[in-house]
């Protein structure tokens, strides 16, 4: 038996209507991903299975500078003690070959007062450190001893130069200057000049300036090419207003670095909800030359999606007090909520009316809040006035009105009438 055909067309039936309804985008829970750059600027990267370890020994000086202090001090001490022992053995062999260790010999020695390995070790220290106490000294009888003296002086100078240079470079490393270059704890996205902008705040705690300071922004995310290749760390350069306007920053006071989210921005298609579910990371790199030392320094930080506040703006922290500009660093990272559309920058460009509606709603809500405040103040003032008048009535009711008697004489005699 054939099924009876329905009178209502299929496109107007319940399944057809449901299929044509606009569906809301489904957002997956964000998987916690390890950040590429930590908040303090250190790289969260581990090098494994390096087979050619000898490459590090080809650049010994950089390897010594990169080592931790405890390893550097151990190498420093070991190098000097080893050189002293090596040349102490050389002086002992010179004395042994010349026969100076024989107590019965009365001739001229190569080195006076070197009669054992201990005395040879002390003489080695005196020669390399150029102490010269005067008790032990070399004579002109042995050309071999003169050669050893020249070699020890040359080797000692080389060791001193390398070790002292290594310690100086470790104490004057550029990352030490970066400790006083600070970034805001959070980044913000808000409307500036009718455009959605990504903003951060940077500052320098020292009075000595950073010459030629530049700021670079990069977005790091995991992407997949159309060919199916997975790029785990895809770095995308982000343009900033400072980079477009000039070549460097004048970092005298804290500055707000602004990135306009346009069609060339990797944040162009992200809305407020999609940003919270994305796994992107924005890396900020501040570079410049230290004014006092002339060394190039670099400070780094990063912002993940949880650290980007949508619809916030940094509050001003620079004020003028008695002819001097003052910076309040206690409010360096403070933000305030502002009216911002929750849609992406692409939707905002396609429908500019969204921004106008958002601003109008914000203005209406601001006016309503002002009206509520004024009404609350008016009610409070009326209550205070009513309370004060009621207290006056109570105080007046407590007063007793005295009775006053008026005595009037009558015609017939001395009758008195009391009138109150």
From TrEMBL:
<keyword id="KW-0406">Ion transport</keyword>
<keyword id="KW-0633">Potassium transport</keyword>
<dbReference type="Pfam" id="PF01007">
    <property type="entry name" value="IRK"/>
</dbReference>
<dbReference type="GO" id="GO:0015272">
    <property type="term" value="F:ATP-activated inward rectifier potassium channel activity"/>
</dbReference>
<dbReference type="GO" id="GO:0034702">
    <property type="term" value="C:monoatomic ion channel complex"/>
</dbReference>
<dbReference type="Pfam" id="PF17655">
    <property type="entry name" value="IRK_C"/>
</dbReference>
<dbReference type="InterPro" id="IPR014756">
    <property type="entry name" value="Ig_E-set"/>
</dbReference>
<keyword id="KW-0472">Membrane</keyword>
<dbReference type="InterPro" id="IPR041647">
    <property type="entry name" value="IRK_C"/>
</dbReference>
<dbReference type="InterPro" id="IPR040445">
    <property type="entry name" value="Kir_TM"/>
</dbReference>
<keyword id="KW-0851">Voltage-gated channel</keyword>
<dbReference type="GO" id="GO:1990573">
    <property type="term" value="P:potassium ion import across plasma membrane"/>
</dbReference>
<dbReference type="InterPro" id="IPR003278">
    <property type="entry name" value="K_chnl_inward-rec_Kir6.1"/>
</dbReference>
<keyword id="KW-0597">Phosphoprotein</keyword>
<keyword id="KW-0630">Potassium</keyword>
<feature type="compositionally biased region" description="Polar residues">
    <location>
        <begin position="407"/>
        <end position="420"/>
    </location>
</feature>
<dbReference type="GO" id="GO:0034765">
    <property type="term" value="P:regulation of monoatomic ion transmembrane transport"/>
</dbReference>
<feature type="region of interest" description="Disordered">
    <location>
        <begin position="365"/>
        <end position="420"/>
    </location>
</feature>
<protein>
    <submittedName>
        <fullName>ATP-sensitive inward rectifier potassium channel 8-like protein</fullName>
    </submittedName>
</protein>
<feature type="site" description="Role in the control of polyamine-mediated channel gating and in the blocking by intracellular magnesium">
    <location>
        <position position="160"/>
    </location>
</feature>
<keyword id="KW-0812">Transmembrane</keyword>
<feature type="compositionally biased region" description="Low complexity">
    <location>
        <begin position="377"/>
        <end position="399"/>
    </location>
</feature>
<dbReference type="GO" id="GO:0005886">
    <property type="term" value="C:plasma membrane"/>
</dbReference>
<dbReference type="GO" id="GO:0007399">
    <property type="term" value="P:nervous system development"/>
</dbReference>
<keyword id="KW-0813">Transport</keyword>
<keyword id="KW-1133">Transmembrane helix</keyword>
<dbReference type="InterPro" id="IPR013518">
    <property type="entry name" value="K_chnl_inward-rec_Kir_cyto"/>
</dbReference>
<feature type="domain" description="Inward rectifier potassium channel C-terminal">
    <location>
        <begin position="181"/>
        <end position="351"/>
    </location>
</feature>
<keyword id="KW-0407">Ion channel</keyword>
<feature type="domain" description="Potassium channel inwardly rectifying transmembrane">
    <location>
        <begin position="37"/>
        <end position="173"/>
    </location>
</feature>
<feature type="transmembrane region" description="Helical">
    <location>
        <begin position="71"/>
        <end position="94"/>
    </location>
</feature>
<comment type="similarity">
    <text>Belongs to the inward rectifier-type potassium channel (TC 1.A.2.1) family.</text>
</comment>
<dbReference type="InterPro" id="IPR016449">
    <property type="entry name" value="K_chnl_inward-rec_Kir"/>
</dbReference>
<feature type="transmembrane region" description="Helical">
    <location>
        <begin position="145"/>
        <end position="168"/>
    </location>
</feature>
């Amino acid at each position: 038996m054939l099924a009876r055909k329905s009178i209502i067309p299929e496109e107007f039936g319940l399944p057809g209507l449901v299929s044509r309804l606009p569906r809301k985008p489904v957002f997956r829970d964000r998987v916690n991903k390890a950040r590429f750059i930590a908040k303090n600027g250190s790289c969260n990267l581990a090098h494994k299975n390096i087979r050619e370890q000898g490459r590090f020994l080809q650049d010994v000086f950089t390897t010594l500078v990169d080592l931790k202090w405890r390893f550097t001090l151990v190498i420093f001490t070991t190098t000097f003690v080893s050189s002293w022992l090596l040349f102490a053995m050389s002086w002992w062999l010179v004395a042994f070959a010349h026969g100076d260790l024989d107590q019965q010999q009365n001739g001229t020695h190569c080195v006076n007062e070197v009669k054992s390995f201990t005395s040879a070790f002390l003489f080695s220290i005196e020669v390399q450190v150029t102490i010269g106490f005067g008790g032990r000294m070399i004579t002109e009888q042995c050309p071999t001893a003169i050669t050893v003296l020249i070699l020890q002086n040359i080797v000692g100078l080389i060791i001193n130069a390398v070790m002292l240079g290594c310690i100086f470079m470790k104490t004057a490393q550029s990352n030490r200057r970066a400790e006083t270059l600070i970034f805001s704890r959070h980044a913000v996205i808000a409307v500036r000049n009718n455009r959605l902008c990504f903003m951060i705040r940077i500052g320098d705690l020292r009075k000595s300036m950073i010459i030629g300071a530049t700021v670079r922004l990069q977005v790091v995310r995991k992407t997949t090419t159309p060919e199916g290749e997975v790029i785990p760390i895809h770095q995308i350069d982000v343009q900033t207003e400072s980079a477009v306007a000039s070549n460097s920053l004048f970092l005298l006071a804290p500055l707000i670095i602004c990135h306009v989210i346009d069609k060339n921005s990797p944040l162009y298609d992200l809305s407020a909800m999609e940003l919270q579910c994305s796994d992107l990371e924005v890396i900020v790199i501040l570079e410049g030359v230290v004014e006092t030392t002339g060394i190039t320094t670099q400070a780094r930080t990063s912002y993940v999606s949880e650290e980007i506040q949508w619809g916030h703006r940094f509050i001003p922290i620079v004020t003028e007090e008695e002819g001097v500009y003052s910076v309040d660093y206690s409010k360096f990272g403070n933000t305030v909520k502002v009216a911002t559309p929750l849609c992406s920058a692409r939707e905002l460009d396609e429908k500019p009316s969204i921004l106008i509606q958002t601003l109008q709603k914000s203005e209406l809500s601001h006016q309503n809040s002002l009206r509520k405040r004024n009404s609350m103040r008016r009610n409070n003032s009326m209550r205070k006035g009513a309370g004060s008048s009621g207290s006056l009535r109570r105080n007046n009711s407590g007063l007793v009105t005295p009775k006053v008697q008026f005595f009037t004489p009558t015609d017939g005699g001395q009758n008195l009438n009391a009138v109150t």
